[in-house]
Amino acid sequence: GAGVSQSPRYKVAKRGQDVALRCDPISGHVSLFWYQQALGQGPEFLTYFQNEAQLDKSGLPSDRFFAERPEGSVSTLKIQRTQQEDSAVYLCASSWGQMNTEAFFGQGTRLTVV
Amino acid sequence: QKEVEQDPGPLSVPEGAIVSLNCTYSNSAFQYFMWYRQYSRKGPELLMYTYSSGNKEDGRFTAQVDKSSKYISLFIRDSQPSDSATYLCAMKAPPGGSGGSNYKLTFGKGTLLTVNP
């Protein structure tokens, strides 16, 4: 497809379980972003990749969160030992370059920790 | 105080009404201003963006930026039921900005709009 693709769309995890969320950006997009959107809130920045380099991970809430983009295209956001407060929609966005204003968002992965 | 403030609503209007959505911000480094539309259970979709101050019009949508007041607006004319969604403002600084503000978007909470037929 032409857009940003995220999988799974929905994930239910038991507290303490590890999860992995996948993002397929638009082909050729250099920049990739992860955002977290809690219910009733705007998206909050988590991390930023330029190609395979993770240039900013300042928004990751704790060391249980880890993101990678080893070949500069597909990215995975991993959450270890999930907690109830991790329940949110995780959005991936990509853009042509760092300074390009238009970032295209995927539909998100809705994570519910029970 | 958050960097970007947006009244979450909800806002309910009749079809055909003019809708005004607003955000205020505190970071004077912000120069790029965007409005995203987010339908339920979907990702945000870029509607409008403006650079620095001024107005931009696209069909039924007009975006305004007043940097002196740190205030941005989105106007929707002749609103339609299909405009019912959450509207998010977002902003970022230009290249050279500090703290990552030149690439990461800072969003408002979003305003939930319902246009009734």
Walk me through the structure.
The complex is a heterodimer of chains A (114) and B (117). With 114 residues, chain A is mainly β. Chain A is built from no helices and 11 strands. Chain A has strands spanning 5-7, 10-13, 19-24, 31-37, 44-50, 53-56, 65-68, 75-79, 88-95, 104-105, 109-113. In chain A, strands 2, 4, 5, 6, 9, 10 and 11 form a 7-stranded mixed beta sheet that branches. In chain A, strands 1-3-8-7 form a 4-stranded antiparallel beta sheet, with no helix packed on it. The termini of chain A are far apart. Chain B is mainly beta. Chain B is 0% helix and 52% strand. Chain B contains no helices and 11 strands. Chain B has strands at 4-6, 11-14, 19-25, 32-38, 45-51, 54-58, 61-66, 71-76, 85-92, 106-107, 111-116. In chain B, the strands form 2 sheets. In chain B, strands 2, 4, 5, 9, 10 and 11 form a 6-stranded mixed beta sheet that branches. In chain B, strand 4 and strand 5 form a beta hairpin. The interface between A and B is medium-sized, with 27 and 29 residues.
Question: What is the share of helical residues of chain A?
Answer: under 10%
Give me the oligomer status.
Answer: heterodimer
Q: Name the pair of protein chains with the most residues at their interface, and give those residue counts.
A: A-B, 27 and 29 residues
Figure out the total of helices of chain A: 0
Largest sheet of chain B: 6 strands, mixed
Roughly how much helix do the residues of chain B carry, as a percent range? under 10%
Compressed to H and E, one letter per element, the order of chain B equals EEEEEEEEEEE
Shape assignment of chain A: globular
**What is the overall pLDDT average of chain A?**
94
Element layout with pairings:
The complex is a heterodimer of chains A (114) and B (117).
Chain A: E1 5-7, E2 10-13, E3 19-24, E4 31-37, E5 44-50, E6 53-56, E7 65-68, E8 75-79, E9 88-95, E10 104-105, E11 109-113
Parallel strand pairs in A: 2-11
Antiparallel strand pairs in A: 1-3, 3-8, 4-5, 4-9, 5-6, 7-8, 9-10, 9-11
Chain B: E1 4-6, E2 11-14, E3 19-25, E4 32-38, E5 45-51, E6 54-58, E7 61-66, E8 71-76, E9 85-92, E10 106-107, E11 111-116
Parallel strand pairs in B: 2-11
Antiparallel strand pairs in B: 1-3, 3-8, 4-5, 4-9, 6-7, 7-8, 9-10, 9-11
